[in-house]
């Protein structure tokens, strides 16, 4: 979200507002019916815009999907950068995962998460966007882990890249589980998550 | 799969074969286009059957989805029951997770996994099937964990139900990651998975 960026030019501001309106409408449609089954027509109806007006902002459904992922991604470096200066690296890592999980638990956009996965498997264009986002997050977390190793807070014998891949799998798995199982709650899973991440990363003791 | 069950009645055997043929065709179609966007017509074409013939076996798309999940589920109790007699409970748990992961890494059915999640979020009928399967697996693993606690191999202070929920999230997350990230491999993630599960369940040491 670019709510805080000063857009003084009224035309640019209007453009930004219209884009946001389309993306919000598209999220509602995609969450309801899936990417694959949702036509641009449905997005137009939800946004209350004519196809001609909408196509001026987004020439295709893939362009909308790309913009949704990009918008989500815009928050991530900001969320992760404090990790590179934290005193307690593991604690900060867990806090940012909690913020990511809680931030994703909005009922309107939540169903989009597995949908994005499913579409990434089918659609190379979405896979490419997803992959870029993933790499960007992964690179930052690898640096965080390596810093934790240098500080003696994280087991230096771990393969940092595989460990990060695993932590990302774990975090996505928890989000997916909350989505799927009505009885699963972030409050119940978070202590498990924290115990698991702390013990996984801890130096010493046999694995 | 019921390959081993003796179906001596040729008509019953034929019925079973036709059902299997339809389900295999449906998996190909669903993996390609998603549940939502795939019509019964496409499944008929893939199976090489007329709609009339196919409807004799499955009256609706939901009935096909249900049968796919049921078929997958049929293997699970068999996969998990040895856990209830294992000497090394945690080792056996990790081995059965490995078998589950490797068994799911068939290129044809793999894309179905996030698709099932996405559909379960949208479609209450699929959510109900999914939930039943999930509960059945969860019940067995809770008993395994409690047995490990009684044997002193697993931290008895853990909430068994939340721990199992977490382990299921973790396992699904690893499967999803392999699906999504071309560089992710089961060989790279399995040592991380094993380290994580062993340390997570281990008695003693502060969490």
TrEMBL record, chains A, B:
It comes from Hansschlegelia plantiphila. Residues 16-76 form the HTH tetR-type domain. PROSITE patterns: HTH_TETR_2. This is HTH tetR-type domain-containing protein. Keywords: DNA-binding, Repressor, Transcription, Transcription regulation. Residues 39-58 bind DNA. Coiled coil: none annotated. InterPro entries: BetI_C, Homeodomain-like_sf, HTH-type_TetR-like_transc_reg, HTH_TetR, Tet_transcr_reg_TetR-rel_C_sf. One of its GO terms (molecular function) is DNA-binding transcription factor activity.
């Amino acid at each position: 979200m670019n709510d805080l960026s000063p857009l003084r030019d009224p035309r640019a501001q209007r453009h930004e507002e219209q884009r946001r309106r389309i993306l919000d409408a598209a999220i509602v449609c995609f969450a309801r019916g899936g990417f694959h089954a949702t036509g641009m027509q449905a997005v137009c109806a939800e946004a209350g815009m004519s196809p001609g007006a909408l196509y001026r902002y987004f020439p295709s459904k893939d362009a909308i999907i790309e913009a949704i992922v990009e918008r989500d991604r815009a928050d991530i470096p900001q969320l992760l950068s404090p990790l590179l200066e934290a005193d307690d690296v593991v604690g900060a890592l867990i806090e940012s995962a909690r913020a990511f999980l809680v931030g994703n638990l909005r009922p309107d956009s939540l169903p989009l998460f597995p949908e994005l996965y499913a579409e990434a498997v089918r659609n190379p264009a979405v896979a490419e966007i997803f992959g870029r986002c993933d790499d960007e997050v992964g690179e930052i977390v690898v640096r965080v882990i390596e810093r934790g190793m240098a500080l003696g807070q994280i087991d230096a014998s771990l393969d940092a890249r595989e460990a990060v891949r695993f932590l990302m799998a774990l975090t996505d798995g928890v989000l997916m589980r909350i989505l799927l199982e009505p009885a699963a709650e972030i409050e119940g899973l978070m202590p498990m998550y924290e115990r698991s991440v702390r013990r996984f990363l801890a130096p010493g003791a046999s694995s």
